[in-house]
Structures are given as C-alpha cells and as structure tokens.
Amino acid sequence: MFDILALVVAFCCSILTIKVLLPLAPHIGLIDLPNERKKHDGAIPLIGGISIFTGVLIASTLFIENSNIINLYLISSALIVFIGTLDDIYDLSVGSRMLFQGIVACILVFGASRFISDFGAIFGGENVVIGDYGMIFTVLAVIAAINAFNMVDGIDGLAGSMSIITIGSIASLMAFNNSSESILLPMLIVVSTIPYLFYNVSTRNPRGKKIFMGDAGSMYMGLTVIWLLTLGTQDTADTTATFRPVIALWLIAIPLMDMLAIMIRRIRRGDSPFKADNGHIHHILLANGVTSRKALWIISGLSIVMALIGVVGELLIVQEWIMLSVFTLIFVVYSMLLQKYCVISKS
C-alpha cells in the first residue's frame, strides 16, 4: 500500500512552497491582474502550480523507486512548469507555447519509449493498433491535454477539481487492479493539490492570501493526466495495462469535450482554434446567471458522473465499442447544448 509518510511530505512541501512564494510573487511579476476576460478582484499570485509540482517532486524523489520513467516524467514536468511560469509572467505567444509544449512532449514520449499504440477493440472485433505511429499520436495527445486543462482553468477550483477527479479515478482503477506499486504517484499529485485548493476556493482562507494555479499549474496537470493515462492503458513487455484505452475518454471527459467543442466552433466561425474567447462551459454558465461556486459544483459533478461511468464500465467489462458510442453521443449532445447556450448568453 502507498506510503502515508510520502503523502504527508508531499502535503507539507506544497503548503510550505505556498507560504514561501506568497510574499515573493508580486515582486517577480507572478501575479494575475483582472481584465475584460478575468473578473477577479486585485492581483492574485500565480503560484498554485509551482506548489503542487514541488510537493510531487520532493516526495517522488524521496519515496518512489528511481527509474527512467519517473525521472523523465519529473524532468518533463519541471520543464513544463518552467514554461508555464514564463507564460504567467511574460504572456508568451501561442506559437511559442505550442513549440515548447511539443519539445517537452517529445522528450517524454521518445525518451521513455512509452506511447499510445493500441486503442483497443473500439469498433468491435480486433484491436486498433497503430504501432510506432503511436509516438507521433502521443506527442499530439500530450499537447492537446496540456491545452485542454489550460482552457478549463477559468473559475476558482475548476482545474484543480478536474485534475483530482481524473487522477483519483486513475488511482482507483489501479487499486482495483492491485497495482499497488503504481498508485503512489497519482496519490502524491492528489495530496499536493489539496493545499492549492484551500488557498484558491476555501471560505476559511485568510483575506488577501488567495492564489491561482496559473498556466504553470494547468499545463503541468494536463501533462500529468495524459501521461498517467498513457501508462495506464498500454501493455509493455514488463507491465500489463490497468484499464482499456476507451476508458481514458471518460476519465478526462469534460476538459476533452469542452476543448473539442470550442475548437470546432471556432473553426466553423473562421477563427483560429486557439483564439481565446468566452465560449467555455464555465463562461456560459456564468453568463446565464450561475454563480462561480455553483458553476464549479455543476461542472465537477458532471466530471464525477462521467468518470464513474468510465470506472464502472471498466469493472463490468462493458464492450469497448459501446463505451465509445455512448461517449460520442454524449459529446454531440454536449457540443449542441454548448452552442445553444453560448448563443443565448451573447443575445
């Protein structure tokens, strides 16, 4: 079973990092100022992501057995947190961010030689296998996941909650599969995220000490989620997959569907798929009179339901083509509703 001391170390290191960086953030420009798209009050330190990664880094170094996989994950995570921090301070261009994300994805995928090559029997019959082309697919998937979590980070607690739900679901599937050696890393990430959520959303948080995750945090969470999903869904010579690939769609459902629906709508409009706007699910809920706290509960609730369907579908061994078909149907409905209420909110 995972080491309780490791979880305590991760939690304490995350809190300590927040306390150290809180007074420093304004002096180095690591703050978020309100504008027409950001409606918060005052300058908020963007240190949540750094605190989460610090907790994971220290606890992983101390308590997880040294391996090429964990070393490359930590190196890639450090790079993505660094890039995200630069973006938080200097507001990098979309092209620069995508380039750096691609480099980090290549380091992780090609360095570890772990990638998505088997999609399972998603159409019934034989498994869909793409072999070494999976390296390119996985690099693109890493970039997509990084941006999906970056896009969903729009209201207090949302990116953190989405991350905990997804990573917690992965950990639960590992537990059901008796993968006790693999469960420590996702649990460290979940525990390291809790202090950030307290400073971000708790009503007991002292006034003036609110923090945001920042691009460093949302990009790190996206990288982490897709990497855990890759490790969990693919067989290797030494390990057996923890769950089937189609289940990954359900565990990351809301960030994935929101990103795809938004990008499709932007392309149909003739805009760049990466052009920022107020068309995400949290923006639409807020525009239609839902409070930020209620929007958090609604979106988190939807994410929990989708993740539970995925977990139960895996435990009951529901056929993969059925899981994919139902997911696709839900995505179509989600996209249509998003379009409908986006139009209403603009009118």
TrEMBL record:
Gene Ontology MF terms in the entry: glycosyltransferase activity; magnesium ion binding; manganese ion binding; UDP-N-acetylglucosamine-undecaprenyl-phosphate N-acetylglucosaminephosphotransferase activity
Localization: Cell inner membrane; Cell membrane
One of the protein's GO biological processes: cell wall organization
EC number of the protein: 2.7.8.33
Span of the signal peptide: none
One Pfam family named in its UniProt record: Glycos_transf_4
Enzyme class, first EC level, given as a word: transferase
InterPro entries associated with the record: ECA_WecA-rel, Glycosyl_transferase_4
Keywords associated with the record: Cell inner membrane, Cell membrane, Glycosyltransferase, Lipopolysaccharide biosynthesis, Magnesium, Manganese, Membrane, Metal-binding, Transferase, Transmembrane, Transmembrane helix
Sequence positions that bind Mg(2+): N150, D215
Gene Ontology cellular component list: Gram-negative-bacterium-type cell wall; plasma membrane
Membrane topology: Multi-pass membrane protein
Bilayer-spanning residue ranges: 6-31, 43-64, 70-86, 98-116, 128-146, 182-199, 211-230, 242-264, 295-315, 321-338
Origin superkingdom: Bacteria
Cofactor(s) needed: Mg(2+); Mn(2+)
Catalytic activity line of the entry: di-trans,octa-cis-undecaprenyl phosphate + UDP-N-acetyl-alpha-D-glucosamine = N-acetyl-alpha-D-glucosaminyl-di-trans,octa-cis-undecaprenyl diphosphate + UMP
NCBIfam families, A to Z: ECA_wecA
Function: Catalyzes the transfer of the GlcNAc-1-phosphate moiety from UDP-GlcNAc onto the carrier lipid undecaprenyl phosphate (C55-P), yielding GlcNAc-pyrophosphoryl-undecaprenyl (GlcNAc-PP-C55).
Similarity comment: Belongs to the glycosyltransferase 4 family. WecA subfamily.
Matching PANTHER family: PHOSPHO-N-ACETYLMURAMOYL-PENTAPEPTIDE-TRANSFERASE (PTHR22926), UNDECAPRENYL-PHOSPHATE ALPHA-N-ACETYLGLUCOSAMINYL 1-PHOSPHATE TRANSFERASE (PTHR22926:SF3)
UniProt name for this protein: Undecaprenyl-phosphate alpha-N-acetylglucosaminyl 1-phosphate transferase
Source species: Thalassotalea euphylliae
Source species taxonomy: Bacteria, Pseudomonadati, Pseudomonadota, Gammaproteobacteria, Alteromonadales
Encoding gene (name): wecA
